[in-house]
Amino acid sequence: MLKSGTFISDRYEILERVGSGGMADVYKAKCHKLNRFVAIKVLKQDYSEDKSFVAKFKNEAQSAAGLSHPNIVNVYDVGEDNGLYYIVMELIEGITLKQYIERKGRLTIKESVSIAIQVAQGIEAAHNNHIIHRDIKPQNIIISKEGKVKVTDFGIARATTANTNTINSNAVGSVHYISPEQARGGYIDEKSDIYSLGITLFEMLAGRVPFEGDSTVTIALQHIQNDIPNLKALVPDIPISVEKIVYKCTQKKADRRYLKINSLIADLKRSLVTPDEDFVVLSTVGNDGTTIVISDDEISTIKKASALTDDDIDTIQSGDTNDELSKTQILENENDDIDAVNPKFDKIIAVGSIAVGIIILIFLIVLVSKIMKNFGINTSMNNSVTVKTEETLDDMHTYVPNVIGLTENEAMEKLNENGLGVAYEYDFDETIEKGLVCKQSELADTVVEKHIQVVITLSKGPEVHDMIDVVGQDLTTAMQKLEALELNVTVEYDFSPSEVNKVIAQSKSTRVDVRKGDEVTITCSRGPEYKATTTVPSLVGAKQKDVSGKLSGAGLKLGKVIEVYSDTVKKDRVIAQLAKSGSQQPLGSSVDIVVSLGKKEIPTETETQEQTETQQESQSDQNWGEQPSDQNWGEQPSDQNWGEQTTPPNQGEQPSDPNQQDQQNQQNQQNQQNQGWPQGNWPQQGNWPH
């Protein structure tokens, strides 16, 4: 295992290991040449000297490097450094589809179909480049935090232009998703990927894989011999179009599946628009029957292949979550070879099918004859006899009715009618209304012994919790607490003075209730934001018109311009700058400057006197206004001593109180002094000229 800080090819710095597979480890690394984070798959040292492993490892790189599509993990580089073979890939922040299914139980129909479309589009890009993936499964499908679906791990893919019916260098994918032709070492083409995608779609819809077993051999044989379980029984609300799409993808004979994946994509998209329309065209079943007989040689081949790929599940390190990409999952899965193939397989199937068909026919004839005899019906071929399926059941067996969605009493009545007992359990359910049956222990339409108890689970409705507060907690602790509430958590990042990976915000407050599957977004700290700085240029003495150019060249901009008079600095020259020259300032910040208006002009003595007289005349006009037209102010009244000038007009009424009158006279005298009026005794208001 590579240590943190190790450099590969003097370019890629290893940060941490994020995954481990059959023959390679996956690391998060930093490319110092392009300054970005990447994922590097490094061949394990134990295998780097094995030419076959090295060739297989290079084959993955060659297969994936030529692909460029939004639904495929990009491969950036491939190389070798002192015996260390590596592939540089796109680093995806997200989780695998397998983890997503395990978290949600089963996906909604719309979500399942939408994911299948994106996966199919990625596969289509590979098929257009003559590449078969050969290992389509939820572990090799990554869902990014933005909801983008990407196919990864072309570890066992190889160009279809090679001799694909030669098994010597072939490889097998995870046995739960393997196509029948892969399991028995047959010819592999694009339809093998379509089969595996159909199994993946089944798992998304049902929340489980179609075939389980004690060993990989058992599971592989089921892929060859058995039809997939009735999806309608597992997902009662599945539309007929989606059910038929899954059924067509998972046909045992490759030529009965979708022949090209673009046809599958078209049907998937149509099912989103008209889900209940019966538009999927299924291939006509031939006369060779459906039962398949496996030869001893083929079973031997399956055992060899399965032994090399037991479980085939990647081991992923949880690692330290001290990085914003801590939930990044780069899964890889390497698988070994099948040793042999039996080219006589199709002939064996045909012969075996005919034999089994004859046996079944004889059995049915005997069974029908006995039934007709018991009911006193003439067995003559001249009589028309219709035998219903139910009539083949004896008195000890019965069919299990479907009671999902019924009330407790309705379910009990229906089960009792079929001779079955009832037991009750209670559980939370996100989709079934409280009080209705959400589960039953025996699948509908299966044959069971009469009088057994069928356990039905009554819904308690959605489970509701109080939202918890995770602000201030580290990302790992917060995720554990939120996932314990079965919430769908999205992690975002933002700059903050808080410690890296500390939760600084959450989308839901503690005052709200949350249910299983609710979306919650938490924001974690990236740490303090780093801002690039620049050196402030010297601006003092520069012309104002040149300042903007100088600042722009330094990555700064002009701020406020303050203008002042100066006896020493010429007009329009910079006197001072408020950001010191030579100091460091953030890029894009503003710099304020002080600019000279030049010397302030001082008026001469004559100009000052003329200005004062002009101001006095203006003041006099404002105080006197227009003089009365019926009074010649050039002639003074005989009873008035005009040596003592009167108060100006508009002075207002004189107060009647003597004290107030004295105060008013004093105020008038003060006004005279202020306004340059001659001082004297002013007549009372009654003596003013009219």
Compact description:
This is non-specific serine/threonine protein kinase. This protein is of the alpha+beta class and 690 residues long.
Task: Give structural notes.
Residues 12-280 form the Protein kinase domain. Residues 602-690 are annotated as: Disordered. ATP binds at residue 41. InterPro entries: Kinase-like_dom_sf, PASTA_dom, Prot_kinase_dom, Protein_kinase_ATP_BS, Ser/Thr_kinase_AS. There is one protein chain. With 690 residues, the protein is α+β, with helices and mostly antiparallel strands. The protein has 6 domains: 7-89, 2-Layer Sandwich (Phosphorylase Kinase, domain 1), CATH 3.30.200; 94-308, Transferase(Phosphotransferase), domain 1 (Orthogonal Bundle); 344-378; 393-459, Trypsin Inhibitor V, Chain A, CATH 3.30.10.20; 464-525, 2-Layer Sandwich (Trypsin Inhibitor V, Chain A), CATH 3.30.10.20; 533-596, Trypsin Inhibitor V, Chain A. The strands form 9 sheets. Strands 1-2-3-4-6-5 form a 6-stranded antiparallel sheet, covered by helices on one side. The protein is elongated and about 140 Å long.
Features:
single chain, about 700 residues, alpha+beta, Phosphorylase Kinase, domain 1, Transferase(Phosphotransferase), domain 1, 6 domains, six-stranded antiparallel sheet, about 20% strand, disordered C terminus
